[in-house]
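Predict the assembly for these two chains.
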Amino acid sequence: MPPKSFLELMQWGPQGWLDEMTFATGLTLAVAICGFLFGLAFGTLAAAAKLSRSTILRRAADAYTTVFRGVPDLLVIYLFYFGGSAVVTAIGAALGYSGFIGLPGFLVGTLAIGIVSGAYQTEVIRGAYLAVPQGEVDAARAFGMSGFRLLRRIIGPQVLRYGLPGMGNIWQLVLKESALVAVVGLTLIFYEVRIGDLVLIYETRFSDLLRQAHVAAGSTRQPFVFYITAVAFYLVLTTASTWAFRQAETWATRGMRRA
Amino acid sequence: MDLDFLWTTFVRLIGGVPLTLQLAFSSIVLGLALAVLLAVMMRSWFTPLAWAADGFVFVFRGTPLLVQVFLIYYGLGQFRPVLDDMGIWWFFRSPYYCALLALTLNTAAYGAEIVRGGLQSVPHGQIEAARAFGMSGFTLYRRIVAPIALRQALPAYGNEIILMIKATSLCSTITLMEVTGLAHRIISETFRSFEVFFVAGAIYLAINFAMSRLIGLAEARIAPDLDQASRPAEVH
C-alpha cells in the first residue's frame, strides 16, 4: 500500500486526522487556560504575601518563586503526577482501599503548570501593584473609599493595565509549556459499568496536540507530517494570542496619554 | 526524612550533571553564533535574507521546544532513506545530536532577538563619531558597536542561559539520561517523588545560582560604570 498523501491524511472525519488534531488543539488550549487561571490564583496570593508586613509570609513567597522559577517544569510535572497519586493512594489506604489510585492527568497537568506560571505571575502582579501611584490611593481614601471598594475602583483596574504586557508574555510561556503534559498524558473521564457483580472501569483518554501528533505519527508511520502539523497549529495559537493581547492592551490603555 | 535514600539519590543524580551542563553549554555557544548571524541577517538590506531570519525566529519562538525536539528526533525519521543516501543519518539517529540541534536552534531564535535589541541600542551618534575618526567596517564593529551592544544584551542573555539550563530537562523525553531523566527513572523505581524532586530541584537551583552569580560578575566586569537601576527590567 503506498503511503497516503498529506491531503488524504489531513481529511476531516474517520478517514483522516484533521478532526482529531483540531480537537486536540482545543484541549491544549483548555489546559493552557486552566493552568494560567490556577497560576493567576497562586500568583495573586504570593504577590499579596510578598507585599505583606509579615516576614514569614514574605520569606515563604520568596521561596516559592525562587524554587519554581529555578527548577525545570518537567520535574514539577513529574512531582505532581507521581507525588499526587502517592498522596491520594495513601489517603485511600487510610480509608481501607488497597491499590494504586491514579490522578486525572488533566487536573495534575494544569495544577503543575499553574504552580510554575504562578511563580512568574507573582512578579508581574507585584510590579503592577507597585506601579499604582500612591497619590491616587491617598485621594481615594480621602473620598472615604476603603477595603474592597478601593481595590475594585482604583487599584484593580490599574494593576490590570500595568500588568497586561507581562501577563501576555506569561500566557505565551504557558501555552508552550502546556505541551509538556503530553509526557504524562491526559485522562479526562473515568466511568464505571456494572454488569451484575462485575464492575468495569473505563477511562476515556483525550490527547493534547503534541500527544495526538505522536499517536498519529505512530499509527501512520509518517511522523514528520504530524509534527509539522502540530507546529502549524501551535503557531496559529501563539499568533492569535499575540493579536488578542495587543487588542486588550489597546483597550486597557484607552484614554491614557502616550509619550 | 530518610537520609540514606537522599544521599544515594544525590550521588546518582550528580552523575547526570555533566550531561546537563554539556548540553546547555554546547547549545548556548553554538546558538549564540547562530543568533549573531540571524541578527545581522535581520538588519540586512537584502530583504529575502531578512525575511528568512524573521521567519526562523517566528517559528522557533512560537512553538514549544518539546515539539521541536520531537520534530527533529522522531519527525525526520520519516526521511531516513534520503538522509541515509546523503550520509547524515548517523547524526539524526542519535538522540544526543538531535537534542543538541533542537536546543541550539531554539536558543538561537531567542538569542537573535536579544542581540538585535543590543545592536539597536547603540546610539547613532557614537557610530557617526567613530566614522569621523575614520573607522569603518570591522574596526567600527569591534571597537564601538560590539562592546556597547554586549553590555546592553548581557542581562537578557543571562536569563536565556538560565532558561537553557532548565530546558535541557526536555532531552530526557528522548532517552537522554541527564538529571531530570535520572530523576524520572529513580521515581519510577521507588515512587518516592517528593524526596527525588527535593534533591533534583536542589541540584538545578545550585547550578542556576552559580550561573547567575557568574553572569553578575561578568556584567560588573564589562559594564562597571552602568547604574544597576538603569538596566532594562527582567524579561521572561
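The radius of gyration of chain A is 23 Å. Chain A touches chain B through 46 residues (CB under 8 Å).
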